[in-house]
Design goal:
- The chain is of the alpha+beta class.
- It has one domain (2-408): Cytochrome P450 (Cytochrome p450).
- It has 17 helices and 10 strands.
- The chain has helices spanning 2-7, 15-19, 22-31, 48-56, 75-81, 99-110, 113-118, 120-135, 143-160, 167-178, 186-212, 218-224, 235-266, 270-276, 281-291, 323-326, 362-379; strands at residues 34-37, 42-45, 61-62, 140-142, 297-302, 306-308, 311-313, 318-322, 384-385, 406-408.
- The longest helix is centred in the middle third of the chain and has 32 residues, at 235-266.
Length: 419
């Protein structure tokens, strides 16, 4: 009974909840660590140990339907999406072994650490170009739209080989698909569906072009990737996979960097601490993911009746693994409600998943965030939140990101940079 009553308080799209969901998560961990949320017809899993149990056990907890919209899409919307090849099956994220094993191996062949390392000079160059343009303008900007999102889209489209001329369209298509996880009127849903359908058609044409004329980009490498005994990726698989890589690469990177800057500038001493000791940048990134996870959580589905956290779950139960809650679990993180760039075990967070579904682009995302923060510390050391700036969050079940981040900069507080 306690579980059901507490689950009624899960209102993740309401402004007051979006502003600060963490007291509710803390109460879940104390009182009902596995509890049913009737509004969404799924179970909330809030403790670190229970989330880890699920992430380690692909046999009892399937990843199918991981990103299926929480409410069935209207038939009018599906009539637009299906002819374009859209499904709610997202490769890598929504696969179980052995299909996941094959796909992960093929992606690993093409998207390896050597490729990520080779991107560092270009990422540094892009960061410098964007920051120089900003610095030449007024010393005030809305950082998400003017810096963070364009940078993340530049990184991902260059990696995949998508043309720079398509970046604005791709950003809009990603925004359209995000709306599938938010209750919206049918007319708006239909407009979003047309954008998602256009994105699938665009990617199909692009993949077929690369199949005929390979180049030095990730799409071409994925087309050419082979593993012993496994068939290569076909066009449908690669279109769906490219959509995942674009969406996850852009959205997660944007969310991470925007959230990092928000907390580094909001918490007294954090930005100055990085400015004096830039070796802390990497740990500050991990602490950001722990403290305010850019990905709130992920879905799993039970494959048979199980016991989890003292709660009996039937076969077919949908679970929402709350990374954002697990990452503040006091059983693992002492004073978990405190943002601390010196935290020794920040890297134990679950914000990028764990096990076979650990984020395939984690190393690239970390590198992008690190080089961007280092560039900001060098070029805009006096960065600060604009006076009176109040951060609000976009209503989304899976992703957490500020709507905007108004900042100012100048010489105030600048000093030497230590490396």
């Amino acid at each position: 009974m306690i579980s059901s009553q507490l689950g009624l308080g899960f209102t993740p799209l309401e402004p007051h909840f979006l502003e600060n969901p963490f007291p509710f998560y803390a109460r879940l961990r104390r009182e009902a660590p596995v509890t049913f949320a009737p509004a969404f017809n799924f179970w909330l899993v809030s403790r670190y140990a229970d989330v880890m149990t699920v992430l380690k056990d692909a046999r009892h907890y399937s990843s199918r339907d991981t990103l299926r919209p929480p409410v069935a899409l209207p038939r009018e919307v599906m009539a637009i999406l299906e002819p374009a090849g859209y499904t709610s099956d997202y490769p890598l994220l929504g696969d179980d072994p052995p299909a996941h094993t094959r796909l992960r191996a093929l992606v690993g062949k093409a998207f390896n650490q050597a490729r990520v390392n080779a991107l560092e000079p270009r990422i540094r160059q892009l960061v410098g170009e964007h920051l120089d343009r900003l610095r030449d303008e007024e010393p005030r900007a809305e950082f998400i739209s003017q810096l963070i999102s364009p940078l993340a889209m530049s990184f991902m489209t260059e990696l995949l080989g998508l043309p720079a001329s398509s970046r604005e369209r791709i950003k809009q298509w990603c925004d359209d698909e995000k709306l599938f996880f938010t209750p919206i009127p049918l007319e708006q849903h239909l407009r979003a569906a047309r954008g998602v359908a256009d994105f699938r058609r665009y990617l199909r044409e692009f993949v077929e072009d690369r199949r005929k004329s390979p180049r030095d980009d990730l799409i071409s490498s994925l087309l050419l990737a082979r593993t012993e005994g496994d068939r290569p990726l076909d066009t449908d698989e690669l279109v769906a996979l490219t959509c995942v890589l674009v969406f996850a690469g852009h959205e997660t990177s944007t969310n991470l960097l925007a959230t990092a800057l928000h907390h580094l500038l909001r918490h007294p001493g954090a930005w100055d601490g990085l400015r004096k000791d830039t070796y802390l940048v990497r740990n500050a990134i991990e602490e950001t993911v722990r403290y305010d996870s850019p990905v709130v959580g992920m879905m799993r589905t039970t494959t048979e009746p199980v016991q989890l956290g003292g709660t009996a779950l039937p076969e077919g139960a949908r679970l929402f693994l709350l990374f954002a809650s697990a990452n503040r679990d006091e059983a693992v993180f002492e004073q978990g409600e405190r943002f601390d760039i010196h935290r020794a075990n920040a890297v134990r967070h679950l914000g990028l998943g764990h096990g076979i579904h650990y984020c395939v682009g984690a190393s690239l995302g970390r590198l992008e965030a690190q080089l961007t923060l280092e560039g900001l510390l060098q070029r805009l050391p006096g960065l600060r939140l604009a006076p009176g700036e109040s951060v609000t969050y976009l209503p989304n079940l899976v992703h957490r990101v500020p709507r905007q981040l108004l900042v100012e900069w100048g010489t105030r507080g600048a000093g030497p940079i230590n490396r």
